[in-house]
Amino acid sequence: MGFFERFNPDRPGPGVEKDAQPKPVFFVFLSVYTRKFYKLLQLNLIHFVFNLPAIILAFIISENIFHTISPKNEFPIFAWMSMACFLVAVNIISVGPFQSGFSYILRNFSREEHAFVWSDYIKIAKKNLKQSLLMCLINILIFCVLSSSITWYISSDQKSVFLTIAVGLQALLLLIFYMMQLYTYQLLVTFDLKLRHIYKNALLFSLARFFPNLLILLLCFAFIVIIMFNIIIALILLPTFAFSVVGLITNFYANRVIKKYMLKD
Questions:
Q1: What is the pLDDT of residue 21?
Q2: Rounded to whole angstroms, how far apart are CA atoms 56 and 126?
Q3: N or C end of the chain: smaller count of CB under 10 Å?
């Protein structure tokens, strides 16, 4: 090899050793995040703007839920704001087409594959327009029905064993529904599936990996709550940082689950 060939960026690298151990998942995630930091910043800004109707709707719904529970507004503002941002971050309330573009790019980053932030975001949003719109409407409807029922029981004076059991089951259903959203949009942009099959597979993943799913949701919720403690920090990080971080966490996790069970070699 000539001296100047050593500086050729296209020359073959050393490759990966045959018996090399895979890196721990956390370090792979950290590597992806640091390498894609500026693209994630761009993606967060774009998605914040296009997803603004969903963010506003989430604030309205969350404020209404807390007001129903406590008409005297005994809860701090950051409580219902945290709930609103969490609903958006885990895809419960979203503008479906833009959420599909967001998930596609984060899925590619999770796979350590290339994606054009702007052009792919718009292309995938257009490609999945009808299906993703229907999905986001279904998600909002299911959340509103379950949360309204639970909220009514919490704020009501009518208590009984039967109602307590019924509401407990609804709370469990709502939790499972949260878990399903870790997978729905990535399934949408990865496979050519009908909507009922997307929800079916998401449900199976939610039940089969209940506790890992729960840990991911708790991690994302804790991250959002920490940000929302300070309104100034929140106003800075929500448009620039927060949604892409939560999105990368959930898509990184979901990609590994989907790859294991649906993309076997």
A1: 65
A2: 23
A3: C
Q: Check residue 265 and give its pLDDT.
A: 56
What are the backbone angles phi and psi of residue 11, rounded to the nearest 5°?
Answer: -70, 150
Separation between Cα atoms, residue 201 and residue 198, nearest integer Å: 5
Looking at the chain, the whole-number percentage of residues with pLDDT higher than 90 is 73
| Of 225, 226, 142, 150, residue with least CA distance to 184 | 142
Enter the tokens of residue 237. Answer: 């990080």
Q: Where are the beta strands (DSSP E) in 22-120?
A: none
SS3 call for 195: helix
| Predicted confidence (pLDDT) at residue 253 exceeds the cutoff of 50 | yes
Q: Looking at residue 163, what is its pLDDT?
A: 84
Whether pTM exceeds 0.85: yes
How deeply is 244 buried, as exposed, middle or buried, from its count of CB atoms within 10 A (0-12, 13-18, 19+)?
buried
Distance between CA atoms of residues 193 and 213, nearest Å: 22
